[in-house]
Every structure is written in C-alpha cells, then in structure tokens.
User: Fold these one by one.
Assistant:
Number 1:
Amino acid sequence: MTSTPLSDSAPPTQHATWRDYLALTKPKVISLLLWTTLTAMFMAARGWPGETFGSGLWLLVVVSLAGYMSAGSAGVFNMIIDRDIDLKMARTAGRPTSSGLISGRNAAIFGTALQVLSFVMLWVWGTPLAAWMSLAGFVFYVVIYTQWLKRTTWHNIVIGGAAGCFPPLVGWAAVTGDLDLFAGYLFAIIFFWTPVHFWALALMIKEEYREVGIPMLPVVHGDHMTVAQIGLYAIYTVVLSLMPVYFGAVGWIYFVSGLLLGAWLLHLSYKLYRHVASGQPAERRVAVPLYLYSMLYLALLFLAGAIDRAVLV
Ligand code: HEM
Ligand SMILES: CC(C)=CCC/C(C)=C/CC/C(C)=C/COP(=O)(O)OP(=O)(O)O
C-alpha cells in the first residue's frame, strides 16, 4: 500500500513497525481507562461478573480487548487530527503521525478497523448498550474534544473530559445491559477528577501549549486561576466520590478508602494552591505530585468500590 504522509514533515525513510502502531493507541493512558472499566464490571455485578466463572472470565477478556481497541482507536484519530500541533511540542513531536512515519491515511484505516471491530465485539459478546457507550466515548473524544473544543476554549478539559467518563459505563452496561444511578456516579467522579488530573500537568507544559495556540486554562487565565479551579474540582471530586455511601450503594471499605484518598487529594491541591497564591511560580515539585497522585487516587478509589461491592454490599 502506498502511503501519503499528510503531515508537513519529510516522507518517512523507514518502515513503521507494530510498535509504532501500538504507540498511536496511547497504551499508558488506556491502562487507567481500562481499569475503570474492569472495576466497574465488578461493581455492577456485585461480585464476579457473569453467571459462571467461565462466562465471567470471557466477558472480562472481551471487554478488555474491545475497550482497548475503542479507546486506542480514539487515540489514533486524536493523533491524526493533532499531528500539526503534536509536531511542534517536545512531548509529542515523536509521534508516528507527526513524524510522518505513519501516514494519516494508514492511521485512519487502522483506527477505523479498531473501532468497527470493537463495536461488533461489544455488541455480540457484551451488550448493545456497552457498544453504544464505547462509541459515544470515541465520538466525544475525537469530535467534541479533539476536533472542536481543544483548540477553541479553555473549557475543553471540563466538557471534552466527559470522553474519559464513558469507560466505566461500558463495563457496567456489558454486565447488566443497563445503567443505574451508581453508574452515573462513576461517570461524575471521573468528570470532576479530570480537570485536577490535567490542569496539574498543564501548569508544567503551558509554554508549549501557548506556542502552538492551544487555549489551556493556565495559558488563558494564568497559574492562580488554574490552581483555584483545581482546588474547586478536587473538592467536587471528593464530595461526589463519597455521596454513594450516603444512599447505601457502597459500604465501609469504600467509605474509609474514599475518605483517606480524598483527604490526600485535597491536601496536595491545597498545597499547590498555597504555593501559587503566595506568589511563587507553579513549580514541578508541587504540581507533579498532584498530577501523579491523581492517577493513584482514581485507580484506588475504583478498586475500593469493586472490593466493597463485590464483598460487602
Ligand atoms: C480531557 C481529558 C484528559 C486530558 C486532556 C488528559 C491529558 C493527559 C496528558 C497530556 C497526559 C500526559 C501524557 C504524556 O506524558 O504524553 C496524561 C497522562 C495520563 N492520563 Fe490523562 N488526560 C485526560 C483524561 C484522562 C482519563 C479520563 C484517564 C483515565 C481514567 C487518564 C489517564 C492518564 C494516565 C494513566 C496518564 C499517564 C500516562 C503516562 O505516564 O504516559 N487521563 N493525560
Ligand atoms: C470509551 C472510550 C472509547 C473513551 C475514550 C476516552 C479517551 C481516549 C480518553 C483519553 C483522554 C486523553 C488521553 C486526553 C488527552 O488528549 P490530548 O490530545 O489533550 O493529549 P495529547 O496532547 O497527549 O494528545
């Protein structure tokens, strides 16, 4: 197949390997997305998903594979659409779509194949609702976030961040064929968590975003506004995380975990806020711990939810 590099960069002098295609799927980010999907399956089933051990195991494998392919496909299209700006930022310049190693056309074929296959797998071996939820996450990330909001408004993260809230719904719907209020809470927890996660990182790389004209919050409104917003969203996240305890959907394991995990999230957010409010620049040593911890927070909170609902409730 002849490939037409769609980026401005020079045509590739070497052939892409499967590793380059894998890089298009953003594997590290997907690991946490998948974690929220799988733990949501245990929460939905209130135990081992599926009627028998074997059927549950099959469902877990299918949803993991299909979930990876769907989110991976979203990553591929994100890298096609963003290849111009990715090329200009040090963090992303080496991406195969930006360097021209993989042409836009080949990447699009790869991404489409992943998405179609994933949809069919979820529909056939999961439930139709799981397939639709996964497609909704894809559309949200590619069209609403990447294509539309990322380059137009600093609200990109809050609104577009909804894309990352769909994975638990995929897992939930694959088990029950339905969604309920608790599934809605899982969506909402990630929705309010995303700004904390991303803006802490954005503070560190704002100059790159400024240079390529991406209106991330620290670029548009500065560090002080960013740390204040991070603090607010951290409070929303923690309060929302604990609310399911109130209506009895989860028990003490989740409650204690949510409380401790949340206390540390608030502590790190407040530390960052105090640092910047006292007139100091948002340095790596205060922002990076929050960025890294945000991921641990989400992973452990979902683990606690799964253990709690599978064992206690
Ligand atoms: C609009 C929403 C989001 C934005 C803009 C965003 C942005 C980013 C960026 C720019 C990075 C740095 C990646 C790098 O080093 O190249 C990152 C890392 C990461 N994000 Fe997000 N993120 C979002 C939502 C999420 C969600 C929903 C999850 C999972 C539930 C997630 C999981 C991760 C993980 C695991 C990493 C670490 C990857 C690594 O170490 O390379 N992100 N995110
Ligand atoms: C169910 C389903 C398919 C959901 C898909 C959701 C999804 C892929 C969320 C990922 C969020 C993310 C990595 C945003 C970073 O984009 P960016 O363009 O700001 O980051 P970059 O600069 O590293 O490309």
Note: The radius of gyration is 20 Å.
Number 2:
Amino acid sequence: MSAPVATQTLIEVRDLNVHFAINASFKARVTGRGGATVKAVDGVSFDLHEGEVLGLVGESGSGKTTLGRALLGLVRPTSGSVKLRGEELVGLPERDLRPKRRHLQMVFQDPHASLNPGMTLQTALAHPLQIHKLTSGDAETQAKVRETLELVGLFPTQRFSDSFPSDLSGGQKQRAAIARAIITGPDLVVADEPVSMLDMSVRAKILDLMIDLKERIGLTYVYVTHDLASAKFFCDRVAIMYLGRIVEIGTVDEIFNEPKHPYTQALIRAIPEPDPDKALPRDLPRGEIPDAARPPLGCSFHPRCPKAFNICGWEARDLQTMLESRWMDLGEDRYGEERPLVGDFSKLKSTEHDAFLPAGSGKDPGELLALLEKIRAEEPDEPMWTGVKEMHAEAHGVRVTFEPGIDPPLYETGGAKAACLLYKPD
Ligand SMILES: Nc1ncnc2c1ncn2[C@@H]1O[C@H](COP(=O)(O)OP(=O)(O)OP(=O)(O)O)[C@@H](O)[C@H]1O
C-alpha cells in the first residue's frame, strides 16, 4: 500500500514502558525491589495517524501484544504516555478509562475464544451498545446489529443474528468478532494476529474486509503479527520489534525495499518465497532470542548480528557464546585440547565492560591467553573480536576488556528510522 497522506495524529506514544516482575516474592513485586523484571515494552515512542495501518512485527516475545494491549489500557504501563487525540490515557482510573473503550477496540487471534458460545450474535453485538448506551430501545439496537452484520459480510443478517458461534465457520466467526469490535464506532482497532488461526483461503478475505471497513467507517488499525508478508499487504507503516523495543519503523516501501536494521534485513530475507525459482536462502539471524529478563548490553540484537562492531555492547556472555559455538564445530581432538584450558563458565565474572575468564584447573593462564589469541587469529570475522580492547593473563585466568557499548536510539537513516549504530551520526 502507498504511504498515507499526512493526517492528524490519533495516538501519540512517548517513552512507554511495560515491565513485569517475574520470579519475585510478593514483597519484591510490591516494593519493585529484588526479583527479575521483563521489559516487555521498553521505552517505545511513535505517532499513529488517523486512517493509517501500523504493523507491529517481531518474533515471539518481542512485546507486540503487550504494546497493543497497553495502547488500549488493557495492560497498565509502568511509565510513559499514550495520548488519544491529545488526551492522556496512562494513569486514568478505570472509571474514566471505561467510556474511552468504545473508541479503542481489539480483535483477537482466536475468534472462537473471543465469542461467548452461549450467546447469539444478536445478543453478543447488542451488549457493547447497551454498555456504552449507544442506542435507545430494542428496535434501534436490533437495527444497528443488522447494519453491522451486513458491513462485515454476514448476510442474510436475519439468519446470522440468530446464529450461535458454533453455527459459524472460522472466517465467519472472525467476521462476527470484527463486527463486535466496530459496532461501538471505534477510532482505533488493535488486531492481534487476526488471521493467523484461519485457513489460508480466508485470510486474504478477512484482511480485505478490514481494509474495506477502514475506508467505509474511518478506522485506524494497529496490526500485530509475526508474519511480514501479511504486513506488507495490509499496512501503511511497519514497526519492527525486538525485546520490547522498536528497532526500525518506516513505510512499507522503506521497510521492504530498503530495510536498514540488520535484524529487519534478516527477517525479510527469511520470508518464504512461493516461487521456488526465486527462493533465496533462508537467513534467520544466528542464535536464539536472548532471555528478556537479562537483555544483552548495548544493542540487544548485537549477539545475533552479522554486522555488529566494536561499540555494540560486547560483554562476558558473548565470550562464553563464542567459545561454546566454536567447540560445537570442532573435532574431538581439538575440543579435547582447548576445553581443559578454560575453567568453569559459572565462574566467568563480569563487570560492565570487563570479563574474567577463569583458567582450567591446574592450567597456566598464559596458555589460556594464547588460546584466545589463536582463536582471534583463526576467526577474524567473528564480530565479537571488534569489541575486544585488551586481553591479559592474571593470577587465575584471563581478563578481557571490551569497548564500552552504546544502546542505540532510533536514528534517522534517510529512509526508515533504525535503532542501529551503523546509522549513528559522527
Ligand atoms: N503478564 C506477564 N507477566 C510476565 N511476563 C509477561 C507477561 N506478559 C508478557 N510477558 C513477557 O513479556 C515479553 C513480551 O511478551 P508479548 O506477549 O508481548 O510478546 P509478543 O511479541 O506478542 O509474543 P507472541 O507473538 O508470542 O505473542 C515476553 O518475554 C513475555 O514472556
């Protein structure tokens, strides 16, 4: 889709944080001290314009759903600001938030779970109208329900208004869930993976319906998905999320034709190509998504990034990962030579930019230093080495000093904005 014409800002999000206490005692949760915290949404800012479709795209656990729910007040932010047409929503008591909910609606992934099996569509759709006192009297309510069923393509409306969810196909159920979301005349609909549980054959039809509704009744969408291909089809702009942050945001053209962040570039290369002749090698970033409760220093993506360089935030954990992944690929003999030189990784100590790697039991730290120098010479393309400033042997191991890392904000790139130090102005 083409970029939206400049319009008014509907939602303004500034430095939004949603942090969850995990594995914490009751006292730690109440006082906020002790225990671990997951930064599900971590300092997110963006504007959403009236009539646009913004995609929130990322791998599982990147914070898409939490961000979408926080926009609607369904999750209480830890701090930051969400304004609806200039009016602050964060911190509003529930009684003041409730009337706003008619303007802010959600469509969920599982249409089956989002409809009450014991209610006809007439009852289910009438409910929000009654709660928000949007109609006066049964006749008006019934007419509004029928009109909305027609809008979402469920006709003859008489038949569908008397149906129960179990009478409907998956696609019809999602149409009914959309009808319930739009019947209050919302401004913003957050659609969380609205087609991912549907048959392939109906996915495009539901997205087409949502586009059609946007034009006909003036909706703005936030579309939460892990599926870049559907975001390309459906969205005007896309925000790529990683460990609670937006790491790149731009128009669909910018993101798909000229992705700037190495993470976005890898995700786009990994989109399955239906035509086998054109298929590129799938190239997902190396390694696992890190533990959200212990995000990497500096740029959170740096341990997986093929383009990482000296200031990306190298630390002790990267040293361990480098050694372990090297040993996975080594033959028995060389593994047998190298492994005993390194001590217990649980004793790997680190301060912010400094790691102390213990030598193996009875081994000379000088031998360990020589091993690290040898690996560096053998694997000069391993990005971690760009961040190693100094290594020297000490009494019981080797001290490795890293370049101080920088946590990148979203930088201007001449296209999309990207949180990557490749675009840091000098
Ligand atoms: N209520 C909660 N309590 C603790 N941690 C949570 C809670 N909700 C989400 N999280 C954590 O926050 C992070 C972001 O989760 P979220 O569901 O928003 O990600 P997502 O990108 O939508 O993932 P998915 O595609 O799997 O739904 C994850 O690490 C998740 O485990």
Note: Residues 200-217 form the longest helix (18 residues).
